[in-house]
Amino acid sequence: MSTAAQSTKDTTTGIEGVVLAWQLAQPSGAGTRSAAEKALKPLLGVRLSDAERRRSLEEAWATLERAGHVTFPRRGAVVITEGGRRTALDALGVESLPGRIRWKAVKRRYLIPRSLGRPAPRTKAEVERIGKKEGLFAAILAWHYDLDIGSYPTLRQVRDRLAWRSLGVDTKEPFTLKAVLARLMSRAFGRTATFETSYGLALAAANAIGAPRAEPGELETALIWRWIDGRKAARGEGSVSSAAAGPGGGAPVDRGTAPSPNAVGDVVARVDDDSSAFAARVLAVARGSETGRFGSNKVFISHVFRKLVQMGAVPGDAEAFKDRLVSAHREGLLSLSRADLVEAMDPKDTEASETRHLSATFHFVVI
What we know:
single chain, 367 residues, Arc Repressor Mutant, subunit A, 3-stranded antiparallel β-sheet, 8 strands
């Protein structure tokens, strides 16, 4: 590379580049050394002493003159050449500058974006945004945290993206209380997509007690039947059928903590195949299941079935297994529940777990 080429390259960066940018903001590109020193003192004086600053400016002007970018037509005067203007504009990434632009605007609109690796603002909104302190804050933070929200985001956009990121969510959605609640409730109910919070809570309440719909009357009926089932079990009056128990009903079962692996093995190892042993085996596996859970007390029937087949505890006939489940449910040995919050569930799990008996449909083993 020739000396001239090297000099030209150097003038687009460092103090030489700043001096050229300042010259662009002068009427007709003509200024004076004293005016340049005064304008650049707040910038250069942050790191350089007065002596170092003056020496650096003298060296920059000498470099620019050798490169043919400035001339000194008279004592103290500095004028940018056409070559210098072109070089400065290329360094700022623009074809031209607005007429009568001031040095402060050149710094904020062009030098600052270039230092952040951003293109110069193109629209009026972008120019206005980077010209305000909030826009400057936003541009710096978007660059620092590598946010994919454009070159000139608003401070609110940056705030929202950072807040979502702290929750492990990648979205451009505004960060509002309603949006956050929808995301958190979806997580709580095991759903990947979001739903309207009050609607989701209503369905969750209905599903928790096996009510067919989230209507007050349906909820009250389901709750009273749970009380009836509990009273009958306490008096030893025997079991009730699934039809009498109401949607998702069945006699209460022990909902203690999940058993240890040894306890599950003990249940599976039982050789008798009566209904009580079958129900105990199903409940033990369901309580120990790490997959297919919905809420705190339900496990998809399909997940329980797959685990039992893997353990060699039941044959691989899903329909026969579901028939035995219904029988155990009717005998009050375990409780099954339907899936009414279908919007919050994996459709594959719902379909594979579907167990029908008369007019009732079940999807979960209640633990």
